[in-house]
Amino acid sequence: MARASASVDGSKPSPRRGVLLLPGLGNNAGDYGPLAAQLEARGLAVEVAQVTRPDWGRNAAALTDINWWRGTLKPRPAVNWYLDYVDGAMQRLKRRLEQEAPGAPITMLTHSAGGWLGRVYLLDWGTAGVDRFVSLGSPHCPPPAGAAGVVDQTRGILNYVNDACPGAFHSELTYVTICGKFVRGVPLAGPGSSSSSSSSSSSSSGGGKGAPGGGLRGLLAKFAGAGYQQVCGSPEVWGDFIVPQPAAHLEGALQVDLDGVFHSPLGEKLPFFGPWYGSEQVLERWVHHITGDEAPAGAVEAVAAAAAGSASAQ
User: Low complexity bias located where (predicted)?
Assistant: First the structure.
């Protein structure tokens, strides 16, 4: 992988690209500190939207909008507070690049709900300076209309976003959507978990959960399945424990699935979960999508293994 070039006086390498990092629902900027540090060490200038955990309570203001109750809510003004954080971070990043690396392009790197929120930002604020969009476990697609027992958790926002800027909407951007295959869900009333996505991944990266049976693995599969159903209409799909694979990809984007990858930084702290997208060993498998560099051989094999495992599981 190419590294940042040395500055004129040799004191500090100049960043070769900027990265704007958008937090996911319930997360704060500090949760992404280790990931940001890893990217900075690779010669990238990183700015994280400075969302705090209590900020997410601002979404409750949308309850006063009749469209919330009708399921026809639009992102603005409901999430203006978040978009203002994004714009503040974008302006700080652009000022830094102007000083340290004039003309360097920017990748918008999004996690979870930050994916569709980033799409709203690009639609309304424009794409100036941005040439890549990468999402990590983002629920991009609304649940299917009329699905029994399913309630759109965005109350219509995802429908609006997918109508206003469907798929890889901006032709000047390269889109990459990444989803972990941590566990295949099962119905709450089902007998247990399902088979792993690939036997090779179980030893190298935590693998998909897990073999048929009960216990903790079965409970994880049922819990995940209940969440997947609310997002994509079906519990029996693969996903990163929070976001199901069918909802995580955009039409027209490069779609990448990673075995054994959990949804959030919490996975690193609890032994029954596993590494998340930003874990060092996982980052190696997809970081080239931030920069557009050629994929390392190991990363290509990881993605190929996931694809082969998915095919064999069907």
Answer: 192-204
Give bridge partners of residue 110 from the DSSP assignment: 22, 135
Give pLDDT tens digits for 11-69: 567 889 999 999 999 999 999 999 999 999 999 999 999 999 999 999 999 999 999 99
pLDDT(307) > 70: no
Query: What is the Cα–Cα distance from 290 to 175, expressed in whole angstroms?
Result: 10
Looking at the predicted structure, is the pLDDT value of residue 302 above 60? no
Task: Write down the residue that tokens 């995802």 correspond to.
Answer: 158
Alpha carbon distance, N-terminus to C-terminus of the chain? 35
CA dihedral 295, 17, 247, 32 (to 10 degrees): 110
pLDDT of 56-99, one tens digit each?
999 999 999 999 999 899 999 999 999 999 999 999 999 999 99
Query: What structural domains does the chain harbor?
Result: 17-178+239-311 (3.40.50.1820)
Per-residue three-class SS string for the chain: CCCCCCCCCCCCCCCCEEEEEECCCCCCHHHHHHHHHHHHHCCEEEEECCCCHHHHHHHHHHHHCHHHHHCCCCHHHHCHHHHHHHHHHHHHHHHHHHHHCCCCCEEEEEECCHHHHHHHHHHHHCCCCEEEEEEECCCCCCCCCCCCCCCCCCCCHHHHHHHHCCCCCCCCCEEEEEEEECEECCCCCCCCCCCCCCHHHHHHCCCCECCCCCHHHHHHHHHHHHHHHHHHCCCCCEECCCCEHHHHCCCCCEEEEEECCECCHHHHCCCCCCCECCCHHHHHHHCHHHHCCCCCHHHHHHHHHHHHHHHHHC
